[in-house]
Design a protein that fits this description.
Elements (H helix, E strand, L loop, with lengths): L3 H14 L38 H17 L15 E9 L5 E8 L5 H13 L12 E9 L5 E3 L10
Antiparallel strand pairs: 1-2, 1-3, 3-4
Length: 166
């Protein structure tokens, strides 16, 4: 062997390629055929799904989407600064069409200790559909982080008031 270090590195990389730690948590699932307007949501990996680049325009729309969710569920918004240790942190990827209809809700981070939260969040996002039209951006995916309190109230990272020290 000319380079045992290179061979060892290659063997290590091949071994790690099958490791579940390196596989994404992102998800896809087909919406039921009987309900074409129902957004997809799941926790199974999907290697073929692409997320829209989070350009300044997409990030600006994230605030519009978050505001629409806040408007739909004012009683569910955690008032004030959120506690330092929230019950769950969930990162969502929401696919919207050119009219603002939610076409899919996917997760790139879900809490293993609170698996019920992801399903509740997917239902809240779907229930807020249609979101405002994204205008010139058109159909895209925007990413947001949900900070979920044990009470079932939440804040979106995009509009959070921050966290308390204690």
């Amino acid at each position: 062997m000319k380079n045992p270090l290179a061979l060892t590195t290659l063997a290590l990389l091949l071994g790690l390629s099958g490791c579940s730690v390196l596989k994404p948590e992102a998800t896809t699932a087909a919406a039921p055929a009987a309900a074409p307007d129902t957004a997809a949501s799941s926790t199974e990996a999907s290697p073929s799904r692409l997320i829209t680049a989070q350009t300044p325009a997409v990030k600006a729309y994230r605030k519009v989407g978050a505001a629409a969710i806040y408007k739909k569920y004012p009683q569910r918004i955690y008032k004030g600064k959120i506690p330092p240790l929230v019950y769950a942190v969930v990162v969502t990827e929401t696919d919207v069409d050119a009219d603002g209809r939610v076409k899919g809700v996917y997760f790139s981070r879900t809490p293993s200790h609170a698996p019920e939260v992801s399903g509740m969040i997917a239902e809240l996002i779907k229930g807020a559909s249609p979101l405002p039209s994204p205008g010139k951006i058109g159909a895209h995916t925007y990413v947001d982080t949900w900070l979920w309190d044990k009470s079932g109230q939440f804040q979106l990272d995009t509009l959070t008031l921050g966290q308390r020290n204690r």
